[in-house]
Amino acid sequence: MIVNDFTDADALPRRMAARPGHLSAAANMLESGVLVAGGAVLDSHDTSGRMTGSVFLLAGLESADHVRAAFANDPYVVGRVWNMESAEIVQVDLAGLGKLVAAAA
User: Fold this and answer.
1) Terminus-to-terminus CA distance in the chain, angstroms?
2) How far is Cα 103 from Cα 89, in angstroms, rounded to an integer?
3) How many CB atoms lie within 10 A of CB 91?
4) Statement: residue 25 has pLDDT above 70
5) H or E segment and range at residue 100
6) Which of 9, 33, 38, 40 is 20 to 30 A from 18 in CA distance terms?
7) Residue 10 gets which letter from DSSP?
8) Euclidean distance between CA atoms 66 and 46, whole angstroms
9) How far apart are CA 75 and CA 9, in angstroms?
10) Is the pLDDT of residue 94 over 80?
């Protein structure tokens, strides 16, 4: 899932206020095996980039509706940080990179 933040002037302060709760929720998803990886989308390719959204690699969720349900109570959704109407939820078939690297060696 890729989701953009709202773009109003208070979006970044709302993000920072909700961040501890969001990170706690993400840790729970990681522990349960649903969250494989995730992080902030930045508006720049250098270290001064401002957070403008988030990206997640998820496992075990059967549909876009299940993804939305999994995040329904996330502090970034409840606190109007993420614009869930902008969320792009796609199915990904991950390559077995470990096998590919071993075969290439």
Assistant:
1) 33
2) 32
3) 6
4) yes
5) helix 97-104
6) 33
7) T
8) 34
9) 19
10) no
How many Å apart are CA 62 and CA 105, to the nearest integer?
A: 35
The CA distance from 86 to 59, in Å, is 21
Tell me the pTM: 0.83
Q: Model confidence at 31, in pLDDT bands (50, 70, 90)?
A: very high
Phi, psi of 64 (to 5 degrees): -60, -35
* Torsion 79-84-88-90 (CA) sign: positive
Q: Quickly count: other Cβ atoms within 10 Å of residue 25's Cβ.
A: 19
> What's the confidence (pLDDT) of residue 95?
72
Three-state DSSP at 12 gives helix
